[in-house]
Amino acid sequence: MQTIKGLLVMDVDSTLINEEGIDLLGEIAGVGKEVAEITERAMNGELDFEQALRERVKLLAGLPETVFDEVAENITFTKGAMELIQTLKQNGWAVGVVSGGFHETVDRLANLAGIDFVKANRLEVENHQLTGEVLGEIVTKDVKLVKLKKWSKMLGLSLNDTVAIGDGANDLPMIQAAGVGIAFCAKEIVQNSAPFSILERDLMKVLPLIMDSELSKK
């Protein structure tokens, strides 16, 4: 079995991709403004994430499950995302994503990018329509941190061997726990609390931070 040198874990919406997936769903449902306002407040840490997610998902009730095909057509990878992932994987790293979004879209992105680990929310579907409910465990800030710890342990790595990247308040615990924690084009509350901050929407800007860290000196 190949020895893994490090683990990168990143958020998906507004980090791996340029969009907020749930906002795209809201636009299709005709409640785009309402959903986007709740998203903004949640990412700024003004609302409890789980409560905010359930509130937004209720607004999506009645959408056909085929809506995810439409959403997929409107999602774009952040500049440098694929290049960063490919570079790290070629150098013996593993990559995971933790998302407050949904497996129905995140799994497609993970397959395209060659991502090793995925944790996201799952929407309930009955009679080929969204019910407005979420199935199972909600991906909160605590769950994101747990996944960072679990995946690194599975790979035989310490937290010092990890990098975490995100933009919202939901990402802060994992950013602060990782060996290199990066606020990426993040909300002010995240920028102010993260060890590192990148303001340009280019994920390849992450690479020098990794290379300059102790991770590269082993």
Largest sheet: 7 strands, mixed
- Domain count: 1
In whole angstroms, the N-to-C terminal distance is 20 Å
Which fold name is given in CATH as the topology?
A: Rossmann fold
**In CATH, what is the class?**
Alpha Beta
**Topology pattern, helix = H, strand = E:** EHHHHHHEHEEHEHEHEH
Shape: globular
- Alpha carbon gyration radius: 17 Å
Strand tally, please? 7
Considering the protein shown, what is the CATH homologous superfamily?
HAD superfamily/HAD-like
- Architecture per CATH nomenclature, i.e. the level-2 architecture: 3-Layer(aba) Sandwich
Unreliable segments of 5+ consecutive residues? none
Describe this structure in words.
- The protein is α/β, with parallel strands linked by helices and 218 residues long.
- The protein has one domain: HAD superfamily/HAD-like (Rossmann fold).
- It has eleven helices and seven strands.
- A seven-stranded mixed beta sheet has the order 4-3-2-1-5-6-7, sandwiched between helices.
- The mean pLDDT is 94.
- Its cofactor is Mg(2+).
